[in-house]
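Researcher: Here's the sequence for the chain we discussed earlier.
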Amino acid sequence: MRALYTAATGMMAQELNVEVISNNIANMRTTGYKRQRADFQDLLYQNLRRVGTTTSDTGTVLPVGVEVGSGVKTAATPRIMSQGGLLPTEKEHDVAIRGEGFFQIQLPDGRTAYTRDGSFELDPNGVLSTVDGYQVDAGITIPADATSLTINAEGTVEATVAGQTQPQNLGQLQLARFVNKSGLEAMGDNLFLETQASGAPIIDNPGAEGFGSLLQAHLEQANVNAVTEVSDLIAAQRAYEMNAKVISAAEEMLQATTNMR
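Model: Thanks. This is the structure I predict for it:
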Protein backbone atom coordinates (compact mmCIF):
# COMPACT_ATOMS: atom_id res chain seq x y z
CA MET A 1 0.00 0.00 0.00
CA ARG A 2 1.37 3.38 -1.09
CA ALA A 3 0.39 5.09 2.17
CA LEU A 4 2.91 3.02 4.13
CA TYR A 5 5.86 4.38 2.14
CA THR A 6 4.44 7.91 1.98
CA ALA A 7 3.99 8.10 5.75
CA ALA A 8 7.46 6.62 6.24
CA THR A 9 9.00 9.55 4.34
CA GLY A 10 7.04 11.89 6.60
CA MET A 11 8.40 10.21 9.73
CA MET A 12 11.98 10.41 8.42
CA ALA A 13 11.51 14.09 7.55
CA GLN A 14 10.19 14.94 11.00
CA GLU A 15 12.98 12.92 12.62
CA LEU A 16 15.49 15.14 10.82
CA ASN A 17 13.44 18.21 11.78
CA VAL A 18 13.72 17.23 15.45
CA GLU A 19 17.48 16.73 15.04
CA VAL A 20 17.85 20.26 13.64
CA ILE A 21 15.74 21.73 16.45
CA SER A 22 17.67 19.80 19.09
CA ASN A 23 20.96 21.17 17.70
CA ASN A 24 19.56 24.70 17.95
CA ILE A 25 18.51 24.15 21.56
CA ALA A 26 21.85 22.54 22.42
CA ASN A 27 23.65 25.66 21.11
CA MET A 28 21.52 28.27 22.87
CA ARG A 29 24.59 29.40 24.84
CA THR A 30 27.11 29.04 22.00
CA THR A 31 28.74 32.37 21.16
CA GLY A 32 27.80 33.61 17.68
CA TYR A 33 25.76 30.50 16.82
CA LYS A 34 23.24 30.89 13.99
CA ARG A 35 20.13 28.74 14.17
CA GLN A 36 19.07 26.36 11.40
CA ARG A 37 15.70 25.28 10.10
CA ALA A 38 14.65 22.30 8.01
CA ASP A 39 13.05 23.00 4.62
CA PHE A 40 11.05 20.27 2.88
CA GLN A 41 9.78 19.52 -0.63
CA ASP A 42 7.13 17.12 -1.87
CA LEU A 43 8.23 14.10 -3.88
CA LEU A 44 7.16 13.01 -7.37
CA TYR A 45 3.49 12.52 -8.23
CA GLN A 46 1.75 9.76 -10.12
CA ASN A 47 -0.80 11.15 -12.57
CA LEU A 48 -3.85 8.90 -12.66
CA ARG A 49 -5.72 11.49 -14.74
CA ARG A 50 -3.47 14.18 -16.16
CA VAL A 51 -4.89 17.67 -15.96
CA GLY A 52 -5.38 19.36 -19.34
CA THR A 53 -5.87 16.17 -21.34
CA THR A 54 -8.60 16.10 -24.00
CA THR A 55 -11.84 14.53 -22.82
CA SER A 56 -13.89 14.65 -26.04
CA ASP A 57 -13.66 15.02 -29.81
CA THR A 58 -14.89 18.60 -29.49
CA GLY A 59 -11.71 19.68 -27.70
CA THR A 60 -12.86 19.85 -24.08
CA VAL A 61 -10.07 19.37 -21.59
CA LEU A 62 -9.87 17.94 -18.11
CA PRO A 63 -9.92 20.95 -15.71
CA VAL A 64 -8.73 19.00 -12.68
CA GLY A 65 -6.59 15.90 -12.70
CA VAL A 66 -5.89 13.10 -10.24
CA GLU A 67 -2.39 13.24 -8.78
CA VAL A 68 -1.18 10.98 -5.98
CA GLY A 69 1.93 12.13 -4.12
CA SER A 70 4.69 9.88 -2.83
CA GLY A 71 5.75 11.78 0.26
CA VAL A 72 8.27 14.38 1.36
CA LYS A 73 12.03 14.95 1.22
CA THR A 74 14.43 17.28 3.00
CA ALA A 75 15.47 20.09 0.65
CA ALA A 76 17.87 22.06 2.84
CA THR A 77 18.78 23.10 6.37
CA PRO A 78 19.64 26.79 5.88
CA ARG A 79 21.08 28.96 8.63
CA ILE A 80 19.23 32.04 9.82
CA MET A 81 22.00 34.65 9.90
CA SER A 82 20.14 37.27 11.94
CA GLN A 83 21.86 39.33 14.65
CA GLY A 84 22.12 37.77 18.10
CA GLY A 85 21.95 39.71 21.33
CA LEU A 86 25.11 41.39 22.64
CA LEU A 87 26.31 40.34 26.09
CA PRO A 88 28.78 42.50 28.07
CA THR A 89 31.74 40.47 29.38
CA GLU A 90 34.11 43.11 30.84
CA LYS A 91 36.99 41.29 29.06
CA GLU A 92 39.09 43.48 26.77
CA HIS A 93 39.91 40.67 24.31
CA ASP A 94 36.22 39.96 23.60
CA VAL A 95 34.78 41.63 20.50
CA ALA A 96 31.26 41.51 19.09
CA ILE A 97 30.08 42.46 15.61
CA ARG A 98 27.06 44.73 15.34
CA GLY A 99 25.70 44.19 11.85
CA GLU A 100 27.13 42.41 8.82
CA GLY A 101 30.48 40.67 8.67
CA PHE A 102 32.68 37.84 9.94
CA PHE A 103 36.06 37.78 11.63
CA GLN A 104 38.78 36.14 9.51
CA ILE A 105 40.65 33.27 11.15
CA GLN A 106 43.87 31.72 9.82
CA LEU A 107 43.76 27.91 10.00
CA PRO A 108 46.94 25.81 10.42
CA ASP A 109 46.56 24.40 6.88
CA GLY A 110 46.63 27.89 5.36
CA ARG A 111 42.92 28.23 4.71
CA THR A 112 40.89 31.17 6.00
CA ALA A 113 37.85 30.47 8.13
CA TYR A 114 35.15 32.92 9.19
CA THR A 115 33.38 33.35 12.50
CA ARG A 116 31.04 35.58 14.48
CA ASP A 117 32.66 34.38 17.71
CA GLY A 118 34.88 37.16 19.02
CA SER A 119 35.96 35.47 22.27
CA PHE A 120 39.65 35.99 21.54
CA GLU A 121 42.67 35.12 23.65
CA LEU A 122 46.44 35.64 23.42
CA ASP A 123 48.76 32.83 22.34
CA PRO A 124 52.23 32.39 23.98
CA ASN A 125 53.63 35.03 21.61
CA GLY A 126 50.94 37.56 22.46
CA VAL A 127 49.14 37.17 19.11
CA LEU A 128 45.37 37.65 19.15
CA SER A 129 43.89 34.17 18.59
CA THR A 130 40.78 32.06 19.04
CA VAL A 131 40.36 29.76 22.03
CA ASP A 132 41.74 26.94 19.84
CA GLY A 133 44.92 28.90 19.12
CA TYR A 134 44.07 29.94 15.54
CA GLN A 135 45.36 33.41 14.76
CA VAL A 136 43.03 36.23 13.86
CA ASP A 137 43.90 37.05 10.25
CA ALA A 138 45.28 40.50 11.05
CA GLY A 139 48.09 38.87 13.08
CA ILE A 140 47.92 41.50 15.82
CA THR A 141 50.51 41.06 18.58
CA ILE A 142 49.85 42.56 22.02
CA PRO A 143 53.01 43.70 23.87
CA ALA A 144 53.70 41.83 27.09
CA ASP A 145 53.97 45.11 29.02
CA ALA A 146 50.66 46.50 27.71
CA THR A 147 48.56 47.94 30.52
CA SER A 148 45.34 48.34 28.50
CA LEU A 149 43.93 47.33 25.14
CA THR A 150 41.42 49.28 23.05
CA ILE A 151 39.54 48.04 19.98
CA ASN A 152 37.34 50.77 18.57
CA ALA A 153 34.19 50.45 16.46
CA GLU A 154 36.21 50.75 13.22
CA GLY A 155 38.54 47.89 14.18
CA THR A 156 41.65 49.89 15.09
CA VAL A 157 43.60 48.09 17.83
CA GLU A 158 45.64 50.19 20.25
CA ALA A 159 47.47 49.40 23.47
CA THR A 160 48.90 51.56 26.22
CA VAL A 161 52.38 50.35 27.12
CA ALA A 162 53.97 50.86 30.51
CA GLY A 163 56.05 54.03 30.61
CA GLN A 164 54.24 55.66 27.64
CA THR A 165 51.40 58.14 27.71
CA GLN A 166 50.27 57.77 24.10
CA PRO A 167 48.61 54.53 22.96
CA GLN A 168 50.47 52.43 20.43
CA ASN A 169 48.71 51.40 17.18
CA LEU A 170 48.92 47.61 16.86
CA GLY A 171 46.97 47.00 13.68
CA GLN A 172 43.57 46.88 12.02
CA LEU A 173 40.86 44.24 12.32
CA GLN A 174 38.91 43.74 9.10
CA LEU A 175 35.64 41.98 8.41
CA ALA A 176 34.50 39.74 5.57
CA ARG A 177 30.98 39.53 4.22
CA PHE A 178 29.40 37.35 1.55
CA VAL A 179 26.71 37.76 -1.07
CA ASN A 180 25.12 34.53 0.18
CA LYS A 181 26.23 34.05 3.76
CA SER A 182 23.79 31.13 4.17
CA GLY A 183 25.95 29.32 1.61
CA LEU A 184 28.91 29.11 3.99
CA GLU A 185 29.97 25.64 5.10
CA ALA A 186 29.99 25.04 8.85
CA MET A 187 33.10 23.17 9.99
CA GLY A 188 32.45 23.22 13.75
CA ASP A 189 34.30 25.22 16.42
CA ASN A 190 32.10 28.23 15.48
CA LEU A 191 33.91 28.46 12.13
CA PHE A 192 32.63 28.66 8.54
CA LEU A 193 34.36 28.08 5.22
CA GLU A 194 33.85 29.79 1.87
CA THR A 195 32.03 27.78 -0.82
CA GLN A 196 30.97 28.36 -4.40
CA ALA A 197 27.46 28.99 -3.10
CA SER A 198 28.60 31.73 -0.69
CA GLY A 199 30.69 33.56 -3.25
CA ALA A 200 34.09 35.14 -2.64
CA PRO A 201 34.52 37.20 0.53
CA ILE A 202 34.29 40.99 0.37
CA ILE A 203 36.87 42.46 2.77
CA ASP A 204 36.79 45.91 4.35
CA ASN A 205 37.14 47.74 7.65
CA PRO A 206 34.30 47.68 10.19
CA GLY A 207 31.98 50.61 9.71
CA ALA A 208 32.44 50.70 5.94
CA GLU A 209 29.33 50.68 3.76
CA GLY A 210 27.58 47.35 4.14
CA PHE A 211 29.70 46.28 7.11
CA GLY A 212 28.91 46.24 10.81
CA SER A 213 30.90 47.86 13.59
CA LEU A 214 32.77 46.29 16.52
CA LEU A 215 31.98 46.47 20.20
CA GLN A 216 34.80 45.63 22.62
CA ALA A 217 34.17 43.68 25.84
CA HIS A 218 30.98 42.19 24.40
CA LEU A 219 30.08 38.87 22.77
CA GLU A 220 27.27 38.03 20.38
CA GLN A 221 24.88 35.44 21.75
CA ALA A 222 23.17 32.72 19.72
CA ASN A 223 20.10 33.91 17.79
CA VAL A 224 18.08 30.96 19.15
CA ASN A 225 14.66 31.78 20.60
CA ALA A 226 13.73 29.15 23.19
CA VAL A 227 9.97 29.68 22.81
CA THR A 228 10.13 29.32 19.01
CA GLU A 229 12.26 26.18 19.21
CA VAL A 230 9.98 24.49 21.75
CA SER A 231 6.92 25.37 19.64
CA ASP A 232 8.60 23.93 16.54
CA LEU A 233 9.58 20.82 18.52
CA ILE A 234 5.99 20.21 19.60
CA ALA A 235 4.74 20.67 16.02
CA ALA A 236 7.38 18.25 14.70
CA GLN A 237 6.48 15.68 17.35
CA ARG A 238 2.78 15.87 16.48
CA ALA A 239 3.54 15.57 12.76
CA TYR A 240 5.66 12.49 13.48
CA GLU A 241 2.82 10.96 15.52
CA MET A 242 0.27 11.61 12.76
CA ASN A 243 2.49 9.90 10.18
CA ALA A 244 2.81 6.96 12.57
CA LYS A 245 -0.99 6.88 12.81
CA VAL A 246 -1.21 6.70 9.01
CA ILE A 247 1.09 3.66 9.02
CA SER A 248 -1.05 2.01 11.71
CA ALA A 249 -4.21 2.72 9.73
CA ALA A 250 -2.69 1.35 6.51
CA GLU A 251 -1.55 -1.77 8.36
CA GLU A 252 -5.08 -2.31 9.76
CA MET A 253 -6.55 -1.91 6.29
CA LEU A 254 -4.12 -4.50 4.89
CA GLN A 255 -4.96 -6.83 7.75
CA ALA A 256 -8.68 -6.45 7.09
CA THR A 257 -8.12 -7.27 3.43
CA THR A 258 -6.10 -10.34 4.36
CA ASN A 259 -8.84 -11.53 6.75
CA MET A 260 -11.42 -11.19 3.98
CA ARG A 261 -9.49 -13.72 1.93
